[in-house]
Predict the structure.
Amino acid sequence: MSTDPAFERLLEYVEAELAFATSHYNTSYLDRRVSSRMRRTGCDSYEEYFELLQSEADEQRALLDSLSINVTGFFRNPDVWEGIRDVLRTLTERHESVHVWSAACADGREPYSLSMLAHDDVQIDESSIHILATDISEPALETARERTYTESRTVDLGDQLEFLDAYEQYVDHDPANETYRVRESIARPITFERHDLINGEAKSGFDLVICRNLFIYIDNAYKQSMLETIARSLRADGYLVIGKAETIPPTLKSAFAITDGRLRIYQREGSVGVSMNSESSN
């Protein structure tokens, strides 16, 4: 973990001038991302990189994109998606209209996976599913809206999509260009929108919120308020899915019943406030 004063000044600049809440993230995570940009730009010190950052708008955008957590995949952790399948079956049986929030959706593969799953499962009424997909990164959202994903040496998109037996009906594969393009019918239920989960307002009226693998990067002091924001966005008895390596803070456990502890699927308790103070003023 860096204690270099130039590194601290750099983080203060990013928070104050570029409006990215560096104070909410683990310092080790921030240091890894900044150091990666330093290597890319050939800078040998934080001070040198800080000077470059202040003078180059393109590098400011590149750093912000790097700081945004864009690790994702189609049907990431397939066992969790089996749990999500069960939740969607329950919700579409219970409600005529089901509202899902894919928070911190990165480049869109999570919400597209949701839509494909809804279309693929005969026990899920896909016409009732409405998905809001949000992220802090505009470049990531631009990729999501374009619906086209390119394979690389480390990413086998076909392997990710094989969670569904006949994914070819939802995605067009171009072997020559090694791209997969999500079809319009799958994109139709999804609305993409920029939202800052750290500083933004709570949403409302969601039956399911999926926010996976974000909180492992967030400083412990801020996890509580972010999860309170998510909890206020859920209807009574709505579901929450977080990452398999993440946990609900003890002070919030009374707000959620465990649906599947191994898969980190919870259900909002309808008669319980989110916390002692967070909902009393709403």
User: Anything to note?
Assistant: The first strand starts at residue 98 and ends at 102. The radius of gyration is 20 Å. The first helix runs from residue 5 to 17.
